[in-house]
Amino acid sequence: NAGVTQTPKFQVLKTGQSMTLQCAQDMNHEYMSWYRQDPGMGLRLIHYSVGAGITDQGEVPNGYNVSRSTTEDFPLRLLSAAPSQTSVYFCASSRGQGQETQYFGPGTRLLVL
Amino acid sequence: KNQVEQSPQSLIILEGKNCTLQCNYTVSPFSNLRWYKQDTGRGPVSLTIMTFSENTKSNGRYTATLDADTKQSSLHITASQLSDSASYICVLNDYKLSFGAGTTVTVRA
Fold first, then answer.
1. How far is A81 from chain B (nearest CA, A)?
2. A107 interaction partners in chain B (CB closer than 8 Å)
3. Which of B20, B83, B87, B100 could bond B38 through an S-S bridge, CB–CB 3.0 to 4.6 Å?
4. What is the pLDDT of residues B11-20, one digit of tens each?
5. Where are the beta strands (DSSP E) in chain A?
6. Which residues in chain A touch residue B95, judged by CB atoms under 8 angstroms apart?
């Protein structure tokens, strides 16, 4: 049982490039989400999904797209990278929202030059 | 303004000593409040969860308390160990999660 996995661990992009951050979980969780973590700030929700085929925007969705074609996978796409997207990105999953415990992946550190 | 404010931003303690971290919040009531531990380079891991009506919850050497009157939660670490060096994040759930910025704890031998 690997839990929540994320790839890559590190990535350097040039402004304007696009890329996809991968996230997968093997716990059969319905709820998955993407956060970014910046110095001195709390985790901020980018997008989330309550099940396969259903996604919704979080607090800071601009510049990011997601899809949820399977229960296991929840990729995050950066359409045209900007320096403001330099951050650490965490994917999380849980059985549901509310009282359910969220399990976080190890994170992807992204630097946009 | 963030609904969850944590203090101090960072602290250094000697191994074996106790410490207390603070979390002040503005939303009341709420569904639950969690404390997470985040080791360097890793994702957060849940330590404790308290509902609005609970006052205290323990997980080994970690004890979280909740004071609804002052809108404060504390996380007390007893007999600190080097492995306690991490960031500790307070998270409020009022059907939307609000994350504090965290307190970085460094335990020195």
1. 23
2. 41-43
3. B87
4. 999 999 999 9
5. 4-7, 10-13, 19-25, 31-37, 44-51, 54-57, 64-66, 76-78, 87-94, 103-104, 108-112
6. 97-98
Q: How far apart are CA A112 and CA A13, in angstroms?
A: 5
User: Which pLDDT value is given to residue B23?
Assistant: 98
Residue ranges, chain A, pLDDT below 50 = none
CA distances from A78 to A22, A112, B108 (A): 11, 11, 40
SS3 A83: helix
The answer to whether A11 and A66 are in contact (CB under 8 A) is no
Is residue A99 less than 8 Å (CB to CB) from chain B? yes
Which amino acid, B40?
A: T
The residue among B46, B52, B35 whose CA lies nearest residue B90 is B35
